[in-house]
Amino acid sequence: MRPVYCVSGGVSKFAKARPDKTFQAVIKEAYDYAIRDIGLDFQQFTEIVDGSVASYFSDHFSRQLMAGIMAQDYLGLCPKPGHRVEGGGATGGICFQEAWKQVASGYMDVCVAYGFETMSHVETWKGNEFIALASDVSFDYPVGGFYSGYYAMMVTRHMKEFGTTVEQLAHVSVKNYMNAVYNPYAQKHQRLTVQDVRNSPMVAWPLTRLDICVMSDGAAAVILASEDGLAKLEKASGKRIPRVKVSGIGKGTDAMRMADRPHDDYDKFMKSYALPHEVGSKETQAYYKKLWAKGFRYPGVHSFRAGRMASKQAYKNAGIADPLTEISFVELHDAYTSSEIQTYEDMGLCRYGEGGAFATSGKAFMPGVKYGLKLKEKPICPVNPSGGLIACGHPVGATGLMQGVFALWQLQGMIKKHFKDETLQIKNAKRGAIHSHAGTGTYVTVSILEKEA
Amino acid sequence: MPKKNTNTKREENLEGTILFNVPFPKKLDKQSLAALKEMTPIVKRQPYHVEYLHSYGQDSPWFAGLANRVLLGNRDPKTGYTYPTPRGSDMYTGAETEWVQLPNEGTVHAFTVCHFGSEEFLPETPFVLALIEFEGANTLFLTRLVGVDPHEASLDWIGMKVQARYLRNSKFKPTDVYFVSADAGDE
After folding, report:
1. Is the pLDDT of residue B5 over 80?
2. A282 and A310 assigned to the same domain
3. CB contact under 8 A, B142 and A160
4. ∠ CA(B72), CA(B158), CA(B164), 5° rounding?
């Protein structure tokens, strides 16, 4: 494998609906932005780019098969190599990693990953039905297929196991919405209180509408390159591109049916799933022994084994020993406030069972943003500084790539340029993690981006 | 505790008017062609209906079981690892699983009350989804929990003893079986 650099990115404005343009034209907004940002024009870039990977989740939403090739020809990328990837909510994250592989393997020097989703072409509840078809249509969907319902079951188990509260969940919503106030790309701009989140209409107990991300139309594009690719791009533009390396990727999976997930014992957890910093700590071992003694089993339906495996692999590849202190920020897949809390645990930002307390501690908040909350601790590793899926929106195939773009801009120190506001710029951001998540935790990717000294 | 739902928005639907003509410039010149860029988009209704022949394949006996008021599960013949939701092959040994009868009673492991849902299930809201544990089974089973008050959701429901009930007229869907509190008595 050779080093892969994240070079540039673009994001279309995420909106409830984009009837003004077809999906190809929305992708082109993001694509053109990414090209412009490295100082090239369309033809210069077309000459250099070796190929693409396309990302979109559902053929149902657009009622269009082979949408990927329609984007490929619209972007003028034919006859260069390209293919579509699909993996539910993690499609964008998988696409990012597939593009990484094209470059890391030596197959391409410059690869563009682009993704989109147009979810507005059907009514919201029909859209929920399409999404629910991403659950077993023999045994899950017919029982009352509804992703918010599936996640709410995880929540009730998490609350029962660990004492997690709905107010802790609401802190995530307040944080992500407040961050997004400073992100012009976000679909939603509103300042909320914990009470606002709890007072909003109940969707699937105990998750309210403000605990849940919205459906969106949108697109994103990321350009990845090898060292040779960087040289070609810089030669064409005459400008130096800041070096942000993709220093590690990881991916995990779990059973489609939540009901089929194992309930493993302490020894199996420590052997197969614990992170090195957990294995190495006597105190953490004692903490987990106590959890198991109380009846905790792993992963059950409260934890995402796929997210843990993705994190474990990515950390190993990037040489991360203590994620909380060694990662400057995380853009993670907060389709639900609860899944952000579950993901804190999977990613090892805190231990399993501590996600609720972590959410209210302040450690995952942004310095310099006023949340109207009493937070005991200072920010250590801001999570979803962009506003995440909850506030930015979740046009599925674009989401994981959007995270890549926002992470890149953070590491380039260019938030002010792109957001026209520097509130969300994390000072001295050195290393960021992006986390993309599908289904009820079926496919999860974690990729690490790092600023080169 | 959460307050009652206060939905202040009318739900949208796709009902509309059939349109046979739209405004367009009467004369096409340079100016009016350029003005086409300023047009709002045409958005039309596009229905799509399809019927599938869905085979339950090797899982079929499970549905036949429900039609006969029997809850089946699959078990690895050697390890005894038991799945309440059918699975023809064991995840850990790769062995073909065998059929076993599951107990009619179980325990609520997790649940939710759906106040909204996918379009197909919207008319049934609020309904309760639950994951059930069975004595002797290693994994869970997704079902509807019936007979609890959806407006009084409580974490105390977790751990509740429940019993299986069956539809008399089978639909050959997993909802041919559902669960009620074990205290609900006989049908």
Report:
1. no
2. yes
3. no
4. 30
Percentage of chain B modeled with pLDDT above 90: 80
The answer on A387 and A274 residing in a single domain is yes
Identify whether residues A224 and A255 lie together within a single domain. Answer: no
Is B154 among the domain residues?
Answer: yes
Please report the number of interchain residue pairs, chain A to chain B, with beta-carbon separation below 8 angstroms: 160
Write down the pLDDT at residue B47. 84
What pLDDT is attached to residue A277? 96
Across-strand partners of A412? none
Q: Flag whether A144 is in a domain.
A: no
B121, B139, B153: residue with CB nearest A260: B139
CB within 8 Å: A129 and B119:
yes
Output the pLDDT for position A3.
98
| Best mutation target, A60, A62, A121, A125, to test chain B (most B CBs within 10 A) | A125
Instruction: Note down the domain range covering A354.
Output: 250-445
Looking at residue A375, what DSSP letter applies?
-
CB within 8 Å: A128 and B119: yes
Residue B34: its H or E element: helix B30-35
Query: With contacts defined as CB-CB under 8 Å, which chain B residues touch A120?
Result: none
| Residue B13 pLDDT grade (very low, low, confident, very high; cuts 50, 70, 90) | confident
On chain A, the residues whose CB falls within 8 A of the CB of B124 are 144
CA distance A131 to A127: 6
Using a CB–CB cutoff of 8 Å, tell me whether A294 touches chain B.
Answer: no
Q: Which of A244, A260, A286 is the last residue of a domain?
A: A244
Answer whether residue B106 is part of any domain.
yes
**Same domain as A364, residue A233:** no
Query: Would A160 be classed as within a structural domain?
Result: no
| Alpha carbons A115 and A53: distance in angstroms, whole number | 8
In a domain? residue A184: no
Whole-complex ipTM = 0.96
pLDDT at A47: 98
Answer yes or no: are the C-beta atoms of B66 and B179 closer than 8 Å: no
- Name the residue in chain B with its Cα closest to that of A145: B118
Mutation site for A-interface testing, chosen from B142, B158, B171 by largest number of A Cβ within 10 Å:
B142
**A122-170 residue pLDDT tens:** 888 999 999 999 999 999 999 999 999 999 999 999 999 999 999 999 9
- For an interface test with B, which of A203, A261, A305 has the most B Cβ atoms less than 10 Å from its Cβ? A203
Number of domains comprising chain B:
1
Cβ neighbours of residue B4 closer than 8 Å, sequence gap 6 or more: none
How sure is the predictor about B20, in pLDDT bands with cuts at 50, 70 and 90? confident
Chain-centroid distance of CA A117 in Å reads: 15
Q: Are B101 and B75 in contact (CB under 8 A)?
A: no
Q: Specify if B149 maps to a domain.
A: yes
**pLDDT of B15 over the 90 cut:** no
- CA A334, CA A342: separation in Å to the nearest integer? 10
The boundaries of the domain holding residue B89 are 59-184
Tell whether A182 is covered by a domain. Answer: no
* B138 part of a folded domain: yes
Contact indicator for B84, B137 with CB cutoff of 8 Å: yes
